[in-house]
Design a protein that fits this description.
Structural class: mainly beta
Shape: globular
Largest sheet: 6 strands, mixed
Distance between the termini: 37 Å
CATH superfamily: P-loop containing nucleotide triphosphate hydrolases
Helix content: 10-25%
Low-confidence stretches: none
Radius of gyration: 14 Å
Order of helices and strands: EEEHEEEEEEEEEH
Number of domains: 1
Number of helices: 2
Length: 137
């Protein structure tokens, strides 16, 4: 199944980013790659259910290519196959200050899904989420 999303790995997590066009998915993904992550796909990934786990691979047509809007295309070495462990939906407005994780499902596999406020602090929020620094209240 092809999904319109950015996919990357970071510190053992396979992360899918979704959100409106132009919100900054690619910029956030590149910041995480710069911090030690690895590209799977920019703007699209291919999802596979393998024995009840969800994996993502890069689409052949854009494998290793990242479009920087208004700048051009860069080439990065992509990961071939990554286990997806979480989904992040990016947006500019939050409805709750401390929302709980939701659940999404693709190909019959459920994943934790978080809303991530997209502003200059989004990379710090994503680091905290992946590194398990968030606490439930």
């Amino acid at each position: 199944m092809k999904l319109q999303a950015n996919g990357f790995s970071y510190r053992g997590e396979g992360i899918l980013l979704t959100g409106p066009s132009g919100i900054g998915k690619t910029g956030l993904m590149l910041e995480m790659i710069r911090s030690g992550g690895q590209l799977v796909g920019d703007d699209a990934v291919v999802l596979h259910n393998q024995s009840g786990s969800l994996f993502m691979t890069p689409p052949d047509a854009t494998k290793g290519l990242v479009e920087l809007r208004g700048v051009g295309v860069i080439r990065l070495e992509p990961a071939e196959k990554i286990l997806v462990t979480m989904h992040l939906c990016l947006g500019h407005k939050i409805s709750e200050r401390l929302p709980n994780a939701q659940q999404v499902s693709w190909l019959g596999v459920g994943l934790p899904s978080y809303f991530l406020l997209m502003d200059q602090f989004a990379p710090a929020r994503l680091h905290a989420l992946v590194e398990g620094q968030l606490q439930a209240y």
